[in-house]
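User: Just a sanity check before I run the rest of the batch. Below are the structure tokens for the first item. I only need the designed sequence back.
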């Protein structure tokens, strides 16, 4: 077993080296968002999708655009508005009078990196237009189904739900997102660096350090990371604590959780913890990996009750309580 772990560690260090290069190259353009850049990489190598919440102007668009430049991937941006139609995303059938035939005009969803900006500004029928592409890597237009070329990642941003003119995402769709990341303001030193960087007239540009093929290799390589049975049990205990907190000895949470995390959360928590260890160049998962990435996996999958909202509790408060009470292996 020890020899196997030594081999896995060495292999992981070799295979994951490019992830450090990608993040370092992106940091030439993006200041002070290391957490965001790591989550983008985790989503990309696990073939998942990201939901970002934060105020405008925190480099969300720039981060995805820069990733496209670093990896030579196609990038599309859709600004969600109340009058947006599903066909504006997926494409539509156009009648050609010369040939008397209908032709398919593909929409901006046919790309590698899709930024769905302010997704909760559009009604549910438009939000749900993303579901098939996110889950099946395909889009149905008319009678025909069209494949989306891998890699494919949706990075959706949303305004804090208390802002006016927003529509909550359906639970079926929000559960499709691998991670929900909260973006915060940069610190003073970081913002000072941003001012210097963009007021000098010589804004740094990211260079290409990888390719689409590299990402497809990473999609397989991270799965080599070893996850012990005790870690799997720890994941299950955390997930079941969100569903039946009283059975996990956290009775005070019973009235605050309306619905706990779905089975998809168990799969994603195991996957993302392996990916997190992978980008750290480590061949095994630790409980600390689970806690670090667990917030981003769980915060949008725990549906709070009215009592929790009345007490001004957040899903992060619930997760903290669960992490504090579930026994660490």
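Assistant: Here's the designed sequence for the first item:
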């Amino acid at each position: 077993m020890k020899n196997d772990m030594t081999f896995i560690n060495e292999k992981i260090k070799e295979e994951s080296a490019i992830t450090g290069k990608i993040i370092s190259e992106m940091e030439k353009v993006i200041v002070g968002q290391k957490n965001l850049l790591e989550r983008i990489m985790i989503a990309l190598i696990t073939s998942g999708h990201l939901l970002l919440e934060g105020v405008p102007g925190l480099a969300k668009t720039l981060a995805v655009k820069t990733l496209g430049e670093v990896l030579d991937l196609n990038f599309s941006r859709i600004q969600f508005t109340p009058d947006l139609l599903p066909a504006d995303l997926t494409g539509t059938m156009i009648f050609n009078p010369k040939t008397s035939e209908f032709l398919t005009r593909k929409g901006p969803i046919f790309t590698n990196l899709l930024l769905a900006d302010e997704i909760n500004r559009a009604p549910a029928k438009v939000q749900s237009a993303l579901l098939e592409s996110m889950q099946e890597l395909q889009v149905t237009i008319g009678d025909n189904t069209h494949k989306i070329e891998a890699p494919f990642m949706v990075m959706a941003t949303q305004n804090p739900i208390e802002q006016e003119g927003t529509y909550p995402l359906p639970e079926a769709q929000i559960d499709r997102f691998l991670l929900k990341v909260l973006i915060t303001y940069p610190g003073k030193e970081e913002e000072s660096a941003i001012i210097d960087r963009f007021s000098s007239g010589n804004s740094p540009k990211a260079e290409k350090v990888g390719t689409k093929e590299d990402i497809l290799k990473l999609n397989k390589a991270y799965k080599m990371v070893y996850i012990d049975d005790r870690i799997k049990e720890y994941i299950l205990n955390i997930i079941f604590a969100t569903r039946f907190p009283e059975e996990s000895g956290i009775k005070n949470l019973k009235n605050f959780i309306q619905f706990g995390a779905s089975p998809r959360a168990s799969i994603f928590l195991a996957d993302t913890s392996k990916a997190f260890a992978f980008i750290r160049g480590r061949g095994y998962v630790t409980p600390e990996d689970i806690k670090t990435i667990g917030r981003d996996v769980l915060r949008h999958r725990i549906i709070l009750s009215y009592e929790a909202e009345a007490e001004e509790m957040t899903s992060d408060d619930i997760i903290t309580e669960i992490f504090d009470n579930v026994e660490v292996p």
